[in-house]
């Protein structure tokens, strides 16, 4: 009885030990499988993000190439004139622009007329220097329509111009790829730098020679930013043209700081 009972007890102990070992191995395999699955998921996500970054950079380069190409095409010939969209009048006296917010700073291209024309011909509009369908960008009245949140991309927003809607710039988006869920959009806009005045201009020369005076009469020696009015105020009225800190200014709001605080370096 004792030997038989002892044999049965030893056999049961061996069976219980094997069960514990089996369960332990299954748990370890489960942990290993979950770890490998998590690692593969992270790797796939990182790879997907890297691919998205590459696609975004490629679209940005393509946008730049298209913008430069269209600029050369439209403004390359000499008899071309560029006009900002906010010059389109929306009132009889010309005090209000008809261009919608987000499109006021589009650059339009017109063909000039010959100087030998006896009468002033009708302005010949060519194109807006923005992305979009050719039928839309070649229509002068496109700027009078408000941008669509679904079809337009904001290129100049609150991070650059603050909360003012009139200073923002949006352009129609172009789509790349037709596969649902895998397509991309991009947009571009050519801004006219010729309508801007730089704060960082050199002070007027103190040379009183006749040659310098004649040169100053032919072209303004500097931009008189102290005369600029914004919202019925002149934020740069106290800005000294000879202030050496002007060369460090990157936007007009920083210029207002210099005008109000003339001591801080």
Structure overview:
The chain has about 260 residues and is an alpha+beta fold. Among the domains are: about 75-195, no CATH class; about 210-260, no CATH class. It is about 40% helix and about 10% strand. It is built from 5 helices and 7 strands; from the N terminus they run H-E-E-E-H-E-H-E-E-E-H-H. It has helices spanning about 1-75, 135, 160, 210-220, 250-260; strands at about 80-85, 105-110, 125-130, 150-155, 170, 175, 185. The strands form 3 sheets. Strands 1-2-3 form a 3-stranded antiparallel beta sheet, with no helix packed on it. A hairpin with a 7-residue loop joins strand 6 and strand 7.
Q: For the CA atoms, what is the radius of gyration? A: 34 Å
Main sheet makeup: 3 strands, antiparallel
Helix amount: 25-40%
Percentage of β-strand residues? 5-15%
Mean pLDDT: 80
End-to-end separation: 102 Å
């Amino acid at each position: 009885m004792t030997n038989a009972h002892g044999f049965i007890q030893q056999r049961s102990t061996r069976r219980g030990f094997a069960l514990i070992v089996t369960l332990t191995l299954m748990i370890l395999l489960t942990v290993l499988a979950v770890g490998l699955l998590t690692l593969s998921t992270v790797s796939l996500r990182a790879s997907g993000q890297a691919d998205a970054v590459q696609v975004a950079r490629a679209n940005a380069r393509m946008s730049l190439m298209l913008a430069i190409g269209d600029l050369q095409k439209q403004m390359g010939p000499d008899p071309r004139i560029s006009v900002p969209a906010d010059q389109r009048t929306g009132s009889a006296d010309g005090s209000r622009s008809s261009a919608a917010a987000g499109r006021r700073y589009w650059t339009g291209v017109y063909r000039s007329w010959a100087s030998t024309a006896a009468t002033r011909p009708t302005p010949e509009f060519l194109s807006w220097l923005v992305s979009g369908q050719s039928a839309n960008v070649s229509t002068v009245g496109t700027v009078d329509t408000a941008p669509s949140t679904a079809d337009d991309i904001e290129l100049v927003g609150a991070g650059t111009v603050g909360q003012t809607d009139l200073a923002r710039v949006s352009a129609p988006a172009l789509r790349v790829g037709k596969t649902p869920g895998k397509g991309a959009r991009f947009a571009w806009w050519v801004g006219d730098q010729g309508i801007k005045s730089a704060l960082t201009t050199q002070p007027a020369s103190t040379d009183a020679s006749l040659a310098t005076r004649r040169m100053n009469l032919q072209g303004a020696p500097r931009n008189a930013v102290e005369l600029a009015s914004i919202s019925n105020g002149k934020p740069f009225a106290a800005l000294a043209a000879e202030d050496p800190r002007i060369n460090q200014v990157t936007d007009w709001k920083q210029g207002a700081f210099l005008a109000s605080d003339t001591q801080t370096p």
